[in-house]
Amino acid sequence: MHLPPLAPSLPVLRESDTLTSTVLIAPLVDKCIAVLGYGNQGRAHAQNLRDSRLNVIVGGRPLEHGGTARARAAADGFESMDYSLACARADLVIVALPDQAQPAAWVRWIESSLRPGTVVGFVHGFAIRFGFIEPSASADLGIVLLAPKGPGTTVRERFLMGQGIPALMAVHRENKAQTARSLATAWGAGIGCTRSGLLETTFAAEAESDLFGEQAVLCGGVIGLIEAAYEIAIAAGYPPEVAYIECCHELKQVTDLLYAAV
Question: Model pTM?
Answer without folding.
Answer: 0.88
